[in-house]
UniProtKB/TrEMBL annotation:
GO terms for cellular component: plasma membrane. It comes from Photobacterium chitinilyticum. It comes from the Bacteria. The lineage of its organism: Bacteria, Pseudomonadati, Pseudomonadota, Gammaproteobacteria, Vibrionales. Residues 26-144 form the DUF218 domain. Signal peptide: none annotated. This is YdcF family protein.
Length: 220
């Protein structure tokens, strides 16, 4: 059973990864969470010269309530500063609580600052790359984007904050959102291969359903 779960989960993990090639951009846009490895990755991209400034976006979400002493964005920014990113190269959006708000609130912040970047590097957890892309393209069309995440394999990803089971639950839930959210206007449509959706269904049958959203029955 464990090997079957691993095989199914690896298939879903691989689908979420976009494997974009990075190039120098106008800014690095970090969608914050409970995983500070994302902040570290974004800081390394900045220090490697990929963009002149970083935006950290995130308030307090379901998974970070009580984890940090301040917003996700402020906590991630501190990680970046500790790694050598100058304060004046950081913008903070500390109110958003979901991916759509990350994009909309950051868009408003940049407009308020008189900034109009055309090319973005979006930084996110590996298993949220595809949904981040689909959400951004819906909420802020007309921009050039690439998506990046810490170069960590599925087997290496679980840590003190996210167990093996947690990771599977979240990425199964994200796959459901990739399918359902376009109809609600939250994101653009993404093709989901049959074998990937079958892996989703098997994992749900095996009990990995904690991050699923409730859907209305057909015809309701």
């Amino acid at each position: 059973m464990a090997s079957q779960v691993h095989s199914l989960a690896q298939k879903v993990w691989n689908y979420h990864l976009l494997n974009d090639s990075l190039e120098k951009s106008d800014c690095i846009f970090v969608l914050c969470s409970n995983d500070v490895r994302v902040a570290e990755h974004a800081a390394r991209l900045f220090l490697d010269g990929y963009a002149p400034y970083i935006i950290f976006s995130g308030g307090v979400g379901e998974l970070t309530n009580g984890m940090f002493s301040r917003s996700e964005a402020e906590s991630f920014a501190l990680v970046a500063v500790d790694m050598g990113v100058p304060d004046d190269c950081i913008l903070i959006e500390p109110q958003s609580t979901n991916t759509g708000e990350n994009v909309l609130f950051t868009r408003a912040l940049l407009e308020e600052k008189g900034l109009d970047p055309q090319q973005f590097i979006l930084v996110q957890k590996p298993f949220m790359e595809r949904r981040t892309y689909a959400t951004f393209m819906q909420q802020w069309p007309g921009k050039q984007i690439t998506v990046s995440s810490p170069p960590i394999s599925f087997d290496e990803y679980p840590n003190e904050q996210l167990t093996y089971s947690d990771v599977i639950n979240v990425m199964v839930g994200d796959l459901q959102r990739i399918r359902d959210y376009p109809a609600q206007g939250y994101s653009i449509s993404q093709d989901i291969p049959i074998d990937v959706w079958q892996a989703f269904e098997f994992l749900v049958e095996l009990g990995f359903n904690e991050h699923l959203i409730k859907t209305k029955p057909a015809g309701s």
